[in-house]
Amino acid sequence: MTRSAQLIAREQFEAALQAIRQASKEILSLLGNPVAEAKDPQWFLQQMDNARQHLGSWGLVAKRLHINDAELSQFTLQLRHLQQLVPQYESGAEVSATALIAALRFVATLELVRLRQPLLHYSTDLALSQPPQPRAASVQLRGLELMLKDLIREAWPDEVTLVNHLKMLFGANKVRRWLKFAKPGDILSGMQFSELAQLLVDKKEFAKHYAAHFPESGALSFLIEPRKSLLTFLDDVRLIRNHALGQQPLSSVQMTLLENYYAAITSPVQQRYVQGKTQVHPGGFSACDDDELSAFFTDAEQKHQTMSGDIFEIRDAIDSPRHKPPRTREQREQLVVGVLWGAVGLVAIAIAVGGLHLVNQTRKPVAASPPAAYAAPVEPVEARESTPRQQLNRLGIAWDENHFRSAIDRDDDRIARLFLQAGMEWKVSWTEQALERKQHNVLDLLLGYRLQMNEPKPCRRMIASLGHALSQGQSFSSIRKSYLKAFCTTPAVVKRQASDHAQAQARAAATGDKNDEKWAGIQKAIYNEIK
What is the rounded CA–CA span in Å between residue 515 and residue 523? Predict the structure, then answer.
């Protein structure tokens, strides 16, 4: 790392540490473990464990932070990784590429926690002398996708051979879908970013075609092996890319993290290009004008919307359709029930046949024309295979809460409807982002399935989130009012809100403070809506 690069890395790292220290104070205070001064990552990890012991479990920690168990696991794993790389840090010390990425990844996770928990107000904006620019981030997102395509093309220069190879790896159904969206003679243009990356980092594919491009050096030593590091980096890029294609501005930490990922992924390939060992030239992707950049993102955004987003994380290996996945617990139970009912049916048929035989023996045969054979109505194949869950399966969407919540977040009422029709239950807390953005399609849909809402006591959190939103200047929209009336008109909730309203009014009258008066008005508006 050159001197100028080291100075930039040091500034970014120290800015990330400053954001972590500020966040740690607020998080520990929320968890009931307030501290006067924040220290290094190792100290933060110890304090988090103390908070866990105080609350009783990590599950309660996740509940306080408004994140799920998987997200809390990522939070603690990233913090532990950071403290292993940098147990203590003194200003001006050397900063490695791996330590910098670990710090930036953790700040990005802290940003997610702050967005989920309205009671947290710390800033994750990085105080940098040269802040990252949105256009540079767009160029980097474009450059990474083009580099992946060029690496795959270099390994498979013949289109027909590539298509056949993809059929063997992913199955004919996926290939047909890609060809539907692809430009003529370019199947890679029909694939999503995660699918291109998956083809690159698959264990067998990487070892056979791409390992030489990514030696274990620099930031690619972030995890045990370069392939694992590359997988992790590309999956984070997928999330940043989804954010950008969703017309949401990237934060400073997202752009800084992307900048470091871009350098880590493209530098070894660029070095091989200089040495004449590859025709893939990452440096050439940076030289694009505004028209090229705009055309690229217009096409990417259209494909992103058509394919309902790039929602599947990049895995360690490709799930080959040739290997049938093991049955889930639900499928096993259905199979057992089906076998038992089949056995009952066979016994019933045997009894009926035996009874008819006895009756026929006691009667004289009567000459009659043989009755026409009864043909049982055959249910069309399309009807048998069109249940909501089967439709989700054909779309490649797994039956789990994370994909359901993802559909809610991006206002995809088509996918959300299939989950609801198949019986998936939901929680009001999942709608906070949708309520803030006024995503009426999915919000109205969920109200139509209110009986499947299974959050035990949603109102305290809903009212707290609503109060915070109104205090930040957001409107008391009709959809927010509909949700309050749907779930928060029980006598206990109304009584509690009446008490909160009275207390807020008394406090405003006693202090005469404008903020207290504003808060009293908010509490009154909520109370008037549910009483």
Answer: 12
At what angle are helices 226-245 and 193-201 packed, to 10 degrees?
A: 180
pLDDT of residue 194: 93
Hey, what are 239's tokens?
Answer: 């999330």
Q: Quick one: CA dihedral 169, 243, 443, 304, positive or negative?
A: negative
Give the DSSP per-residue string, 358-373: HHHHHS-----PPPPP
Handedness of CA 382, 388, 392, 393 (dihedral sign): negative
Q: What is the pTM of this model?
A: 0.62
What gap in Å lies between CA 394 and CA 385, rounded to an integer? 10
Reading the block at residue 76, the tokens are 């603690």
Measure the CA–CA gap between 293 and 239, rounded to whole angstroms.
Answer: 20
Q: What is the DSSP letter of 186?
A: B
pLDDT tens digits for 285-299? 888 888 999 999 999
Give 517: exposed, middle or buried? Use CB within 10 Å, 0-12, 13-18, 19+: middle
Closest C-alpha to 233, from 186, 268, 277: 268
Instruction: Write the CA distances from 55 to 22, 61, 118, 274, integer angstroms.
Output: 22, 7, 20, 56
Map residue 426 onto helix, strand or coil.
strand
Contact residues for 394 (Cβ-Cβ < 8 A; gap 6+): 173
